[in-house]
Amino acid sequence: MEDRRRTAAVILAAGKGTRMGSQVHKQYMELFGKPLLYYALLAFENSSVDEIVLVTGPGEVRYCREEIVGKYGFSKVTAVTEGGKERYHSVYEGLKAVTNCDYVLVHDGARPCVTGEIIEAASQGARQHKACAVGMPVKDTIKMSDENEFAAITPDRNRLWMIQTPQAFEYELVLRAYEKLMSSEKYQKGVTDDAMVVETMTQEKVKLIRGDYANIKITTPEDMEIAAVLIKRNQRDK
Ligand code: CTP
Ligand code: MG
């Protein structure tokens, strides 16, 4: 039977790209003549997602509406809304701007190499487990340092994952988790992803599902060079 439950995507582009250190915020830097954000939007536009909410910085809403959503004809975008100071503020704004859905995928606009397969896996993961995050087992040994940067703890690598987006949830569950987070300041410190919000603010467990090592987040300048290679490869494989 056809699954008529609706899925939305919240795509985040309200960051300042401090670590990139570029004049233009990294999500608007150009790759093959298109802003980086275009590639993530395209993947979601071409997916089974019903609705896309784009969250952007103050003063960037018009640019996104006209120069990205309008120009490239992203017809699934139902809202372009202003984010906030921290990533979790932006997510919360995005969740509130969704019009009608049962499930929601939250994705970093700075991950242009996301594919239809990854989006589908996350959507299915939300249906099956209520909450999931895509990630990959880490390749390097990870150490936690003490405050003087001496190695302190070496966790078992076999259980370490690097977490990516999309992260997908039952809409009511993640909205409730975020509402709770917004009203309790002590939990807000160090929140870097949505799974963490669901983990700490609800009883629900978040399933980790395999994404792709190529689903990188553009963070520092060399990531742009890597993304160029990966985007070309994705386009060739189509
Ligand atoms: N993001 C957001 N709102 C914020 C902070 C981040 O929407 N207040 C988005 C970014 O635009 C990005 C994603 O969240 O798509 C992941 O964040 P990150 O890679 O940390 O991007 P920036 O915060 O822009 O970069 P930096 O931390 O280097 O300043
Ligand atoms: Mg950041």
Description:
- The protein has 238 residues and is an alpha/beta fold.
- The protein has a single domain (7-135, 164-237), classed as Spore Coat Polysaccharide Biosynthesis Protein SpsA, Chain A.
- Helices cover 35% and strands 23% of the residues.
- The chain is built from seven helices and eleven strands.
- α2 links the parallel β4 (51-56) and β5.
- The chain is globular, with a radius of gyration of 17 Å.
- The structure holds cytidine-5'-triphosphate and magnesium ion (MG).
- Magnesium ion binds next to loops.
Descriptive tags:
alpha/beta; two-stranded antiparallel ribbon; 238 residues; binds magnesium ion
> Rg from C-alpha positions?
17 Å
CATH architectural category: Alpha-Beta Complex
N-to-C span: 28 Å
Strand content: 15-25%
Helix content: 25-40%
Globular, elongated, flat, extended or rod-shaped: what is the shape? globular
CATH topology: Spore Coat Polysaccharide Biosynthesis Protein SpsA, Chain A
For the record, the CATH class is Alpha Beta
> What would you call the structural class?
alpha/beta
| Distinct small-molecule ligands in the complex | cytidine-5'-triphosphate, magnesium ion
Order of secondary-structure elements: EEEHEHEHEHEEEEHHEH
Fourth-tier CATH superfamily name: Spore Coat Polysaccharide Biosynthesis Protein SpsA, Chain A
Count of DSSP helices?
Answer: 7
List the uncertain runs: none
Q: What composes the largest sheet?
A: 7 strands, mixed
Kindly state the number of beta strands: 11
Strand ordering within the main sheet: 5-4-1-6-10-7-11
How many structural domains can be distinguished in the coordinates? 1
